[in-house]
Design goal:
CATH architecture of the largest domain: 3-Layer(aba) Sandwich
Radius of gyration: 19 Å
Number of strands: 11
Distance between the termini: 12 Å
Bound molecules: magnesium ion
Order of helices and strands: EHEHEEEHEEHHEEHEEH
Shape: globular
Helix content: 25-40%
Number of domains: 2
CATH class of the largest domain: Alpha Beta
CATH superfamily of the largest domain: HAD superfamily/HAD-like
Strand content: 15-25%
Structural class: alpha/beta
Length: about 260
């Protein structure tokens, strides 16, 4: 039991692995708990993925609770974008987009990196390999829509040459952040955009002191994509997965 929980004004959750199992929509039990929380407090969801991932994992499951969307704040791509629900639609409050020149430069750097190490795309790919998400450029070795089993098998296999590609990219793109987040992808974003940055944006745009926030995530360990929130001084709770998160919310609800 956390005696201060009733004092918190903003509940911040990671999405993938925290509110929903990896790459899947939130389940019915989570929807119930999460919507009960939305009735009592503002809730922000911050994930590494972009908006379509939020739609698939979060918004589709919540659609019968649209009346509560006013207290739901979305921070896709680690807070590079912020959306809130106003007058029946999701409005972009800000989006720190890469410029067209920056995006072209990044795409060209991938092509050079592939040539440098004589990398060839697999014969069969599923959807786009280099995707321009505006706020980030993502390389998916097997394509965006590759089945999860194939991505699992790819990671660490002899075909997985992401680290070689990254080492070349770093030379060409020193001014950008280059990350290897998933099982088969590379993300290039503006430098300094991580979930810690996202928490800072919440403070700035919502006017809520970080002391009045609490963060729940499954990757708060060293090197995890939730770890950067710690530098903001936000209270954090580490979970192993959605089942842990459900227990937490159920424990909090009577105190709010
Ligand atoms: Mg996660």
């Amino acid at each position: 039991m956390n005696p201060e929980i009733s004092q918190k004004e903003l509940f911040v959750f990671d999405l993938d692995g925290t509110l929903a199992r990896s790459k899947t929509p939130m389940d019915a039990e989570m929807v119930e708990l999460f919507s009960s929380l939305l009735q009592k407090r503002n809730v922000a969801v911050i994930g590494g993925g972009w908006l379509p991932v939020f739609e698939m994992q979060l918004l589709v499951s919540l659609k019968s609770h649209e009346s509560l969307f006013g207290s739901l704040l979305l921070f896709p791509t680690s807070g590079a974008t912020f959306l809130r629900y106003e007058k029946g639609e999701w409005k972009t409050m800000y989006a720190h987009q890469l410029s067209l020149d920056e995006r072209d430069k990044i795409k060209a750097a991938f092509v050079k990196a592939f040539q440098d190490i004589d990398y060839h795309h697999p014969e069969k790919t599923y959807g786009e390999v280099i995707e321009d998400r505006g706020t980030q450029i993502t390389f998916s070795a097997l394509g965006q829509q590759a089945p999860i089993e194939l991505k699992d098998a790819y990671k660490g296999s002899p075909q997985d040459r992401r680290w070689e590609i990254v080492s070349r990219l770093k030379e060409y793109l020193p001014e950008f952040e280059i990350k290897v987040p998933g099982k088969s992808s590379i993300d290039v974003t503006m430098k300094g955009i991580d979930k810690g940055y996202g928490i800072g944006e919440m403070e700035k745009h919502l006017g809520i002191d970080v002391g009045k926030m609490i963060f729940v995530g499954d990757a708060l360990y060293e090197g995890g994509n939730d770890e950067p929130v710690k530098r903001t001084g936000i209270d954090t709770i580490a979970v192993e997965g959605p089942e842990d998160t459900k227990r937490l919310i159920a424990e909090w609800l009577p105190q709010l």
